[in-house]
Each structure stands twice: as C-alpha cells, then as structure tokens.
Amino acid sequence: MNAAQDDFFNFQKGPLDDSGWTIKNVLSLPIVNKKEEIVGVATFYNRKDGKPFDDMDETLMESLTQFLGWSVLNTDTYDKMNRLENRKDIFQDMVLYHVKCRKDEIQNILNTREWFDKEPNECDEDELEEILEDELPDSEDAEIFEFHFCDFEYSELELVKCGIKMYYELGVVDKFHIPRETLVRFMYSLSKGYRKITYHNWRHGFNVGQTMFTLLMTGGLKRYYTDLETMAMVTAGFCHDIDHRGTNNLYQMKSGNPLAKLHGSSILERHHLDFGKTLLRDEVRLPSPGAGVVRDELPPLTE
Ligand SMILES: [Zn+2]
C-alpha cells in the first residue's frame, strides 16, 4: 500500500530536524523470530534513487529481517542460558552446603577444639597428625585388610575413620602431602553425600572402597599401579554410588527425572562421577595449610 497517500497515516510533510532530512518513503517490516513471535520492527526510509520502495525491496528486506529475528532469539537464548547457569550454581552451592562436612562435624574426628582449643585450620600438620594417630582405628583390629571385613559392627562415623586410615596404609598421605584437614573433610563429606536408603548408602560406598583397598593391598595388585593410581582407585570405590536414589536408570528415564534428560546413557553412573568430581574439586579449592602441594602434584580434573 502507499501509506503516504492514505488518510489513516499522518506523515510529517516538512524536514524532521535542522539538517533538513525529510521522510519521502518508508518500508516497515515486523521482525519475526523462529518461534513466529514478533520481536521488533525494522523500518527503512528513503530509497537512494528517490523512488518508492517496491516488491523487490520488500522481498529483500524480508530476508534481512528474518536474520535479525534469529539473532534476537539467539541473544534471548544466550541470556536465558546465563540465568540458568547462575541458578544452577546457586543450587549447587545449596546442595554442597548440606553435603559438606561442617565445622562442628569435623570435630567428631579432628577434635582440635578439645586438644588445642583452636580450629583445624589454625593447627599445623604435626598437631593434626597427633590427633589422628589417637583417633584413627588400628588397621588390624578394624580388619580393613580383610576380604571378610564386615561393616555391621561399625557406625557410619567409624567407617569414615577406617576410610581415612586406608589412605595412610596406601602411603599416599605423606607422599602427596595431603593436608589432614582436607582428607578428613573429604571423607566426611563423602559419607554425607550418600542418601539414607536401604542399599546404596554410605555403607555400600565404603564397602566397595574397602574391597578395592583389599584387592590392592592384600590381593597384591598394588605393585602393578602407581601410588597415584591406587589412591584414585580406592577414592573411586568410595565415590562410586554417591547420591544414589535407590532406583535404577530405567526408573529415572520413565519418571522423566532431569538426570535422564542430562545424560543419554549410564544415567546414574555419570551422576555419581559428576558428584564425586564436584566434591573433590571443592576440597582442593579450599584454602588449607599445604593444600597447594596437592594442587601442584595432581593432574587437573577435566570435565
Ligand atoms: Zn555400587
């Protein structure tokens, strides 16, 4: 339509400003995104040759505005993605707050307040070692080297202590200068990361770690691996079912659990791995005396 000749439109006849610029003709098109929503309007003024815009111009500009629509959608999506990312970080922070070993909880093992009247991070490694020597179980009495080890006689906290003792027996605490506080907090957090369910609970996680430990130490497999590898294998055993929900992968798929949407296959297995890595990463980041040594010697965790 020729809008300028239509009574409905009241076009300004004279120049718009001091520069003398006058609107002679206008081509205005909606900017539509991929979802068929109008997200803006593109307006073109005054064809260079002074003639009115024609059908050809309209077709040309239509394809241009299509690109504009897509890029607006892309920007919107990018914006939404950033917001989701922030929301995810907040949720992760909330979850970690409840999983991570609290300051009062670490005192159940590293009772520095009772021993030295200070917090673990105020103690040096020798002081922490003194407490652990007293607090950790005797390996033989606790039967951690035995294939017939049975967790029934132990509380969940005692299993955390047994787990810490295994790292000592593997000889990796001194070799990799693992800060005592980090080790204790990590094992404690692991035990809290398991849900209170019938089978796939912390006891099960511990049992798999202990079996791995026994295979290496009592079964003699340790000589085939480096210390870093043995440490990783036992840690993997402890972590292997963390945050298990007591239901299988098919259940996650059929119930439409977000985990099934995130992971295409081995749904829960990938989740245990993610969760374990998150806990490890979180511990390594925390400032602790000597923590830098571990950070330098261990290869970086990859996604
Ligand atoms: Zn398992």
UniProtKB/TrEMBL annotation:
<keyword id="KW-0378">Hydrolase</keyword>
<dbReference type="InterPro" id="IPR003018">
    <property type="entry name" value="GAF"/>
</dbReference>
<feature type="binding site">
    <location>
        <position position="204"/>
    </location>
    <ligand>
        <name>Zn(2+) 1</name>
    </ligand>
</feature>
<dbReference type="GO" id="GO:0007165">
    <property type="term" value="P:signal transduction"/>
</dbReference>
<feature type="domain" description="PDEase">
    <location>
        <begin position="124"/>
        <end position="303"/>
    </location>
</feature>
<dbReference type="GO" id="GO:0004114">
    <property type="term" value="F:3',5'-cyclic-nucleotide phosphodiesterase activity"/>
</dbReference>
<dbReference type="InterPro" id="IPR003607">
    <property type="entry name" value="HD/PDEase_dom"/>
</dbReference>
<dbReference type="InterPro" id="IPR023174">
    <property type="entry name" value="PDEase_CS"/>
</dbReference>
<keyword id="KW-0479">Metal-binding</keyword>
<keyword id="KW-0140">cGMP</keyword>
<feature type="binding site">
    <location>
        <position position="241"/>
    </location>
    <ligand>
        <name>Zn(2+) 2</name>
    </ligand>
</feature>
<dbReference type="InterPro" id="IPR002073">
    <property type="entry name" value="PDEase_catalytic_dom"/>
</dbReference>
<protein>
    <recommendedName>
        <fullName>PDEase domain-containing protein</fullName>
    </recommendedName>
</protein>
<dbReference type="Pfam" id="PF01590">
    <property type="entry name" value="GAF"/>
</dbReference>
<dbReference type="GO" id="GO:0046872">
    <property type="term" value="F:metal ion binding"/>
</dbReference>
<dbReference type="InterPro" id="IPR036971">
    <property type="entry name" value="PDEase_catalytic_dom_sf"/>
</dbReference>
<dbReference type="Pfam" id="PF00233">
    <property type="entry name" value="PDEase_I"/>
</dbReference>
<feature type="active site" description="Proton donor">
    <location>
        <position position="200"/>
    </location>
</feature>
<dbReference type="InterPro" id="IPR029016">
    <property type="entry name" value="GAF-like_dom_sf"/>
</dbReference>
<feature type="binding site">
    <location>
        <position position="240"/>
    </location>
    <ligand>
        <name>Zn(2+) 1</name>
    </ligand>
</feature>
<dbReference type="InterPro" id="IPR023088">
    <property type="entry name" value="PDEase"/>
</dbReference>
<feature type="binding site">
    <location>
        <position position="241"/>
    </location>
    <ligand>
        <name>Zn(2+) 1</name>
    </ligand>
</feature>
